[in-house]
Write a structure and sequence with these properties.
Organism: Characodon lateralis
Strand content: 15-25%
Structural class: alpha/beta
Family: Belongs to the peptidase S16 family.
Radius of gyration: 29 Å
Keywords: ATP-binding, Hydrolase, Nucleotide-binding, Protease, Serine protease
Protein name: Lon protease-like protein 2
CATH topology of the largest domain: Ribosomal Protein S5, domain 2
Pfam families: AAA, Lon_C, Lon_lid
Largest sheet: 5 strands, parallel
Low-confidence stretches: 460-473
Length: about 475
C-alpha cells in the first residue's frame, strides 16, 4: 500500500518547536524517528549516495537513515531544508525532488544500492525558517504549515510547565531549593529576551539555576579537617542560604546583569518625523522605527539603513503621494511654499543599519513619518502600522500579519494599523492579543493618517477622489 499523505513542511522562526513537533508525531504514531540535518549540504551524493566504484563510497543519508532505524516506515525529519547549498557536485535540492514526491519515491534508486527502494511508507517532515530560499519545484512537493512565534502569556506557561522543571532537573535542584515567581519570569521574557521562540529564555533560566546551584553547593560544603582531626577556624564562614531561594528582581539583576531590552517606543516618538512600523524577519516579527529629517537643499531624497530596491521604491511613492496631496493636507516646506520638496532635502533613515531591509510593507509607515515631518505633528506613541501603498493612496495587503502583531504586542503597542484586506488574518491571533490591541483596518492613506495622529489628520475626510481626477468629476 502506497502512503499518499502530504509531505509536511513546518516553517517558522527558530526556537518555536518545529523539531519537537516532528518528534511528537513519530511518538504518537508509534514509529521510529530519525532526524537528517540538511544545513550546508551541497553535494547530491549526500542524498543519492556514491557509486561503489568510488573510494570511500557510502549510501546516501536517506538509505543510511533507514539502516539506522531498522524499519521501512519511520518518520524522517528533514531539518533546515531551506539551507541546502549548491556546488559543482550537483544540487541536493534537486535530488530531494524524487524523495519527496509520493508518485515517484516508491522506486527511489540510491547509487550505492543501485536497485529501486520503496520510500512510500516513510513519513517525511521538513522544517525551515523561511520559504524564500527553497526552490519552487521542491516547495511544490510539500504542504507548508506556518509555525508563528509565541505570545508573552504562552512563553510564561511554557516556562513554568516545561523549561523550569527541566532546568531544575538538569542542574540537580528541586522546587524546595529554588523558586522563580511568575513576575520574575515575566521580567526575563520582556527585558532579557526578544525572540519569537523560547530558546534564549531557556538559556536565561539555565543561568539562574547555575547561580543557585553554586549557592546550594557552598551551603552544603563539608568543612575540611586538619591532620590533628580538628576543624580549622574560619573567620568568615558563610551561613547556608534559606530554602527555597526566591529569585526576585534584585537577584535577577545580580545574576543576569542589567536588562538588555527596554520599552523604548514612547521615548523614541517624542519628535516629529518618527513613526513605528512592523516588519517580518525569518526570526519572527519585529518593530521598526522610521526617522526623517529635512534641511535646506535642492529637493533631494537620501535613504540610509541598508534598504532593498522595493523599500526604496516605497519611499519614492510616499514622497510623490505627499507632494500631490500637499495642499489638501496643508503640508509645506521650510520656506512655507506649497511643494514640500521645494528648496528642501529629505533624509529618511531606518535604524539598525547593519540589518538589510526590504519589502513593500513599510509604505504606510514612511508616509506617516513624512507627514509628521512636514506638518510638525507627533505620531501617537502607542501606534504601529504596516501596509503597502500605491500612487493613488490605496493601502494593499501584506504578509506576516500574525508575527507582526505579536511583535507589536511584545513591545507594548496599543493600536495597530493594518490593511483592510488583512482583516481575515486576525482570526489566527490568540484571543488575549485581540483583546489587548485596538486594530484599525484601513483601505487608503487618509484613514491611516487619521488613526496615526491624536485628533486625526487634516485631509480628505470630505473629499475622497484623487486630486488629479477631481476636476473631471
Amino acid at each position: 500500500m502506497i502512503l499518499q499523505g502530504p509531505i509536511l513542511c513546518f516553517v517558522g522562526p527558530p526556537g518555536v518547536g518545529k523539531t519537537s513537533v516532528g518528534r511528537s508525531i513519530a511518538r504518537t504514531l508509534g514509529r521510529e524517528f530519525h532526524r537528517i540535518a540538511l544545513g550546508g549540504i551541497c553535494d547530491q551524493s549526500d542524498i543519492r549516495g556514491h557509486r561503489r566504484t568510488y573510494v570511500g563510497s557510502m549510501p546516501g543519508r536517506i538509505v543510511n537513515g533507514l539502516k539506522t532505524v531498522g524499519v521501512n516506515n519511520p518518520v524522517f525529519l528533514l531539518d533546515e531544508v531551506d539551507k541546502l547549498g549548491k556546488s559543482l557536485q550537483g544540487d541536493p535540492a534537486a535530488a530531494l525532488l524524487e524523495v519527496l514526491d509520493p508518485e515517484q519515491n516508491h522506486s527511489f534508486t540510491d547509487h550505492y544500492l543501485n536497485v529501486a527502494f520503496d520510500l512510500s511508507q516513510v513519513l517525511f517532515i521538513a522544517t525551515a525558517n523561511t520559504t524564500a530560499t527553497i526552490p519552487p519545484a521542491l516547495l511544490d512537493r510539500m504542504e507548508v504549515l506556518q509555525v508563528p512565534g509565541y505570545t508573552q502569556e504562552e512563553k510564561l506557561e511554557i516556562a513554568h510547565r516545561h523549561l523550569i522543571p527541566n532546568q531544575l532537573e538538569q542542574h540537580g535542584l528541586t522546587p524546595q531549593q529554588l523558586h522563580i515567581p511568575q513576575d520574575t519570569t515575566q521580567d526575563v521574557i520582556s527585558r532579557y529576551t526578544r525572540e519569537a521562540g523560547v530558546r534564549s529564555l531557556e538559556r536565561k533560566i539555565g543561568a539562574i539555576c547555575r547561580a543557585v546551584a553554586v549557592k546550594v553547593a557552598e551551603g552544603n560544603r563539608v568543612p575540611e579537617t586538619s591532620s590533628s582531626g580538628q576543624e580549622p577556624q574560619q573567620e568568615d564562614k558563610a551561613a547556608p542560604p534559606e530554602m527555597p531561594i526566591v529569585i526576585d528582581h534584585v537577584a535577577l539583576k545580580d545574576i543576569l546583569g542589567p536588562p538588555l531590552f527596554d520599552m523604548e517606543v514612547s521615548e523614541r516618538l517624542t519628535l516629529p518625523g518618527v513613526a513605528l512600523g512592523l516588519a517580518w524577519t525569518p526570526l519572527g516579527g519585529e518593530i521598526m522605527f522610521v526617522e526623517a529629517s529635512r534641511m535646506e537643499g535642492e529637493g533631494q531624497l537620501t535613504l540610509t539603513g541598508q534598504l532593498g530596491d522595493v523599500m526604496k521604491e516605497s519611499a519614492h511613492l510616499a514622497i510623490s503621494w505627499l507632494r500631490a496631496n500637499a495642499k489638501t493636507y496643508q503640508l509645506t516646506n521650510l520656506v512655507g511654499g506649497p511643494d514640500p520638496m521645494e528648496g528642501t532635502d529629505i533624509h529618511l533613515h531606518f535604524p539598525a543599519g547593519a540589518v538589510t531591509k526590504d519589502g513593500p510593507s513599510a509604505g504606510v509607515t514612511i508616509v506617516t513619518c513624512l507627514a509628521s515631518l512636514f506638518s510638525g505633528r507627533l505620531v501617537r506613541s502607542d501606534v504601529a502600522m504596516t501596509g503597502e501603498i500605491t500612487l493613488r493612496g490605496l493601502v494593499l495587503p501584506v504578509g506576516g500579519i500574525k508575527d507582526k502583531v505579536l511583535a507589536a504586542h511584545r513591545a507594548g503597542v496599543k493600536r495597530v494599523i493594518l490593511p483592510k484586506r488583512n482583516e481575515k488574518d486576525l482570526e489566527e491571533l490568540p484571543a488575549n492579543v485581540r483583546a489587548d490591541l485596538d486594530f484599525v483596518m484601513t483601505g487608503n492613506l487618509d484613514e491611516a493618517l487619521n488613526a496615526s495622529f491624536d485628533g486625526g489628520f487634516p485631509g480628505k475626510s470630505s473629499v475622497r477622489s484623487h486630486p488629479q481626477l477631481s476636476s473631471k468629476l
